[in-house]
Amino acid sequence: MSYGIYKIHSELIIAARNRARERDLNRDSGSPVPQDKVKYGRMSMEAIMKDMDYEGMVSFVKSAHNEATRTMKDGRVICRFRETDIVTICDTQITINTGGWNTKTTRRHIEAFLARHNFQISILGVKKEGGNKFLMRMGENEVGGSFNTWATISRKTGRVYTDQMGMM
Known about the structure:
Elements: H1 3-29, H2 45-49, E1 57-64, E2 67-72, E3 77-81, E4 84-89, E5 93-97, H3 104-116, E6 120-126, E7 131-138, E8 141-147, E9 150-154, E10 160-162, E11 166-167
Antiparallel strand pairs: 1-2, 2-3, 3-4, 4-5, 5-9, 6-7, 7-8, 9-10, 10-11
């Protein structure tokens, strides 16, 4: 196979893979994903840190593939996956946020980050409803709820606030 034909062949394979990835993202999220938001592969630290709030930041470390953890002066610990802050842990509450990326990968990163900080959570994507359900163990208690994009759990009372159901 000559170089020119090989190059065209490899470009066609890459384009087909990208279309398949976009189709999978659309299926997982339940709505079409804008073409400019579709990103593949490893991101540099500069790309992950893009549009991030640096004010009050104490430390910033890469914690997993396309994921970084930053610690703030006020004690908050924030997990950023790609260009979205997916988990914020502070003294009074925990906030989880898919940022509209309702995918298995986002849910897996949320679960793994919280497990590293001694919280047990299980998040299940619900295709029919287009959202998520979660169950979280906090000490002796279990709290849970449904959400589309974000949920906030009070660490003191165990109350859950979501974008889908309001206060539970």
